[in-house]
Amino acid sequence: MSHKQSSSRYSTPDTVTYRYESEMVYVPPAASHQEAIKFARSQFSEKLRHVNDRQISFSINSVVNHETRSVRISPMSWPTVMSTLSRYEIIDIVVQPILEVDSPPEYPLEEVEKSDLKSQCYLEPPSPKSAPSRSPSPDPDNNSEKARLKGWLGKLKT
User: Which residue stretches belong to region Disordered (predicted)?
Assistant: First the structure.
C-alpha cells in the first residue's frame, strides 16, 4: 500500500497492518503513539517482552524523490499521519538499539597528583609576604607627578 496523498480531506482508516520482523497483523489504528505501543505489545508480546517503550518506533514506506524510503513516525505527528494512511497500510515496528556509553577509564592517581588535587579544591588567603604591594593613591594636586617629571628632566640636562 502506498501513502495516500490525493484527497484533501483525510479520514483515519478502519484497519492498518503492523509488521514486526516477518510477521504481520491487522489492527485498528491507534489514536496516539503510546496507544500504538500498547497495540504492538499486545500483538507481539513475546518478541517485545524485554523491549523498553522508548525503544519502540514506527515507520511507513513512502515514495520520496521517486524512491521508496522508510519514514519514522514521530509521537507528535502520530494523529496526522494516521489520518493520511490507506486502509491496510503497513506500519513497521522498529526496535531502536540501546545506546550504552562507557564512561572514560579511571586511572590511579599518584601521591603528587592527589596533593595537587587537594590544593586546587580549597583557596587559601595569600600570606602577607606574597601579597602584591599596592600603588600609592594619586596626589590630588598632582605634586608627586610634577616632582617625578622635574627629576627626569634634570637628568636629561646633565
Answer: 109-158
The C-alpha atoms of residue 76 and residue 85 are separated, in whole angstroms, by: 16
| Average model confidence (pLDDT) across the chain | 81
Q: HSE (CB half, 13 Å, CA atoms) of 99?
A: 2
CATH placement of domain 16-95: 3.10.20.90
User: What is the distance between the alpha carbons of residues 35 and 77, in angstroms, rounded to a whole number?
Assistant: 14
SS3 144: helix
For the chain, the maximum distance between any two Cα atoms, rounded to a whole number of angstroms, is 109
Whether residue 37 contacts residue 51, with contact meaning beta carbons closer than 8 Å, is answered with no
CB 83 within 8 A of CB 64: no
- In this structure, are strands 67-73 and 56-64 parallel, antiparallel, or unpaired? antiparallel
In this predicted structure, the answer to whether residue 149 has a pLDDT above a threshold of 80 is: no
pLDDT at 8: 45
- pTM exceeding the 0.90 threshold for the entire prediction: no
58 membership: H or E segment, kind and range: strand 56-64
